[in-house]
Amino acid sequence: MSPDRTTPTERSEALIGRARAVTPGGVNSPVRAFSAVGGTPRFIRSARGAWLTDVDGNEYVDLICSWGPMLLGHAHPEVQAAVAAAVTRGTSFGAPTEQETELAEEIVARTPVDMVRFVSTGTEATMSAIRLARGFTGRDMVVKFAGCYHGHVDALLAAAGSGPATLAIPGTPGVPESATSLTLVLPYHDRAAVTEAFAVHGDRIACLITEAAPGNMGVIEPEPGFNEFLARTCREHGALFVSDEVMTGFRASKHGQWGIDGAVEGWRPDLMTFGKVMGGGFPAAAFGGRADVMRQLAPEGPVYQAGTLSGNPIATTAGLATLRLADDGVYDHLTKTGEVLKTAASEALGGAGVPHGIQSAGTMFSVFFTDRPVRDFADASSQDAGAYAAFFHAMLDAGVHLPPSAYEGWFLSSAHDDRAVQTVLDALPGAARAAAAAAGA
Ligand code: PLP
Questions:
Q1: Using a 6 Å cutoff on CB, does residue 41 contact ligand 1?
Q2: Separation CA 390–CA 6 (nearest Å)
Q3: Which pLDDT belongs to residue 441?
Q4: Does 153 have pLDDT greater than 80?
Q5: For a substitution probing ligand 1, which of 31, 67, 123 has the most ligand atoms within 8 Å of its CB?
Q6: Residues 158 and 171 occupy one common structural domain
Q7: Ligand 1 centroid – CA 153 distance (Å)
Q8: Total domains in the fold of the chain
Q9: How confident is the model at residue 5 (pLDDT cuts 50, 70, 90)?
Q10: 163 pLDDT band (50/70/90 cuts)?
Q11: Which of 423, 437, 441 is nearest to 5 (CA)?
């Protein structure tokens, strides 16, 4: 595959044209539209291991991995076989199955939660966790951090407020102010803002929700003790600490981001949310936590929550097969492969004179197009989006599909082998030169 090729995109162009007529933007989740980087989104025909094949026959090393779920790469033979066998037994029953309990047991074994409830998406998981926190505490306010994404839950789509006492405004039309007026948005890592928010509103705050390690403004590792501080502050004020591990869960480490800081620092969240990896590429997500909190859910308790496809047998089969295969070797591979790519990306960008920084949380990492250390959303926003767009397209033309946004991590899988890594290494110098040419433009 020549790094200089010009990728043919006729079929993807035709398909996005057709799709735009019947689907807003032609996509079913906005980031797929390439709005931030321009150009034609590639329509994918198939994927295997670390590779995507688009409808024009181009092959790409996949550094999106479905935005996190594909920890073992695409079409993993053992996951595929488990799913194929499950499909022959029927695809949805609306009644409990053994696999649900097996997957719940696997999650309970890997994380500090006592119990879990399955849902279909990460959005449902955070939405339900917040309802449960409100039901359990009898309070109404929620604290979140600017730049942390918890799905498109009305109450969590709040724009960044400018201080702890500022009540947030809606981040999108369609979310009434009443839905976000009970949400406080604070700058990430700002302990003083957290302390002040709890000092002012402590008796009204049901929960504080945070990404265990932010991954939706690029990857930011929480400073040592930060999550512990949040957990302690919540406890002191009778609020619940909700750790969103939809992205980091079973990816940042075998035990998620909690395995990196919580297990060491000795705290545990009251509630956690999971998704992505635990669904093995199918729609499955979960929320879980302390038994006394979880038992407030219907049918044991009064807090209502339900789902026609929750705990779907195909999704739980895929998730269980994935988690059972996700052993220490998988995480070692992600760590080692990540180190190779981080070093190479830094050398290439540094050699071309492109301001950049690389940050990690466990096996997750991202390349920021700014040389300012990124501790919060304001830092992340200082990136040179034009340089990233040029870099992204040069990588794409050289056969590497990065996330079409500078605010995302580069996702790896256990299937990223030497050939995939070499393709990325070959692509980096040219892409760095393209970024340098576009920098500051
Ligand atoms: N929470 C986090 C940390 C996420 O990264 C995401 C999605 O990217 C969600 C929640 C929402 O998950 P979903 O897209 O499955 O609704």
A1: no
A2: 14
A3: 61
A4: yes
A5: 123
A6: yes
A7: 10
A8: 2
A9: low
A10: very low
A11: 423
Residue 44 is part of a domain; what is its CATH number?
3.90.1150.10
The predicted-structure confidence for 383-415, as pLDDT tens digits, reads as follows: 999 999 999 999 999 999 999 999 999 999 999
Give the distance (Å) from ligand 1 centre to CA of residue 151.
Answer: 5
Pocket flag, ligand 1, residue 399 (CB < 6 Å): no
Q: What is the mean pLDDT of residues 214-238?
A: 97
Of 325, 343, 373, the residue that ends a domain is 325
Query: What is the 260 CA–ligand 1 centroid distance (Å)?
Result: 20
Q: What is the pLDDT of residue 155?
A: 86
CB of residue 210 inside a 6 A radius of ligand 1: no
Ligand 1 centre to CA of 70 (Å) is 14
The domain of 390 spans 10-63+327-438
Residue 2 lies in a domain: no
pLDDT band at 173 (very low <50, low <70, confident <90, very high): confident
* Residue 269 within any structural domain of the chain: yes
Active site residues: 149, 244, 276
CB of 244 shorter than 6 A to ligand 1: yes
Q: Which helix (H) or strand (E) holds 285?
A: strand 285-289
For the Cβ of 408 lying below 6 angstroms from any atom of ligand 1, the answer is no
Cα–Cα distance, 278 to 83 (Å, whole number): 14
Bridge partner residues of 359 (DSSP):
366
- Global pTM value: 0.96
**Per-residue pLDDT at 253 exceeds 90:** yes
Residues 143 and 265 in one domain: yes
Kindly report the CATH number assigned to the domain that includes residue 258.
Answer: 3.40.640.10
Task: Tell me if 408 is assigned to some domain.
Answer: yes
Token pair for residue 384? 């040179």
**115 and 19 together in one domain:** no
Residues 223, 228, 230, 233: what is their CA dihedral angle, to the nearest 10 degrees? Answer: -140
* Cα 152 to ligand 1 centroid, rounded to whole Å: 8
Same domain, 45 and 17: yes
Residue 240 lies in a domain: yes
- One domain, residues 401 and 273: no
Alpha-carbon gap, residue 34 to 385, rounded angstroms: 13
Check pocket membership of 126 for ligand 1, CB cut-off 6 A.
yes
Of 325, 358, 393, the position where a domain reaches its end is 325
Supply the pLDDT for residue 222: 98
Q: What average pLDDT does the segment 329-344 reach?
A: 98
* 25 shares a domain with 136: no
Q: Which amino acid is at 132?
A: L
Do 298 and 376 share a domain, yes or no? Answer: no
CA distance 243 to 361: 15
The 10s digit of each residue's pLDDT in 260-307 is: 999 999 999 999 999 999 999 999 999 999 999 999 999 999 999 999
Q: Same domain for 55 and 135?
A: no
Beta carbons within 8 Å of 435's beta carbon, 6+ residues apart: 349, 352, 354, 369, 387, 388, 390, 391, 394
